[in-house]
Amino acid sequence: MIAFLDGIVAGKGPASALISVGGVGFQVGMASSALAALPPEGERVLVHTYLQVREDAMALYGFLSLEDKALFERLIAVSGVGPKVALSALSSYGPQKLVELIGAQDVAAIQKIPGIGKKMASRIVLELKGSLDHGLGSLFAAEDATPNAALAGAREALLSMGFTSAEADAALAGAPEGAAEGALVQYALKKLGS
Predict the structure, then answer these.
(1) Which of 79, 91, 112, 163 is the most exposed place for a label (fewest CB within 10 A)?
(2) CA distance 147 to 49
(3) Which residues contact 22 (CB under 8 A, 6 or more apart)?
């Protein structure tokens, strides 16, 4: 895995940058705010990266801070949110504001992000609320919720989405022990086929 690139800015496009490292050019997808903050061409830069590997392609995404990268990883863990939508979210609001909106459960503001509708905005809030209560610092905090509290919270979330008690219980049956509430909701939604 490529954890970071320490090289020279070789060019910038509307959605990506070219970083030259040891004579090899890497195209790195980035949020518009990160692209704007990059130094000018020819200057040295350190970019933290996330490598996405699919059957048909590999893509490299870059971030100027570990917090941005961690938030991106949390976003793409939400069912239905891909890297392009996650970058769009980071571009629209910036990491700090996005964490505040999720914490405030502001679905209306989140659905204004290009590529995100009301259903996906609700899912983002549902799966990430609680895990970002302490701002960007909580991206690196260990989960301190007890398994029973996480399971109860996940069940409550499923009920608020309109699933019956029986559906929620069946979807959470066999869930990984010790998982956080957001992970349990994601597990259940996949099981329910949503």
Answers:
(1) 112
(2) 32
(3) 7
* Phi, psi (deg, nearest 5) at residue 163: -80, 150
Instruction: Dig out the tokens for 151 from the structure.
Output: 């399971």
Give tens-digit pLDDT for 62-97: 999 888 898 999 999 888 899 999 999 999 988 889
134, 174: one domain: no
Contact 142, 74 (CB under 8 A): no
Q: Tokens for 180?
A: 């956080």
Task: List for the chain the helix, strand, coil content (%; round to 5).
Answer: 45, 20, 35
Q: Which of 35, 63, 91 is the last residue of a domain?
A: 63
CATH number of the domain that 20 lies in? 2.40.50.140
186, containing H or E segment: helix 181-192
Please write the tens of the pLDDT for every residue from 49-65: 999 988 888 999 999 98
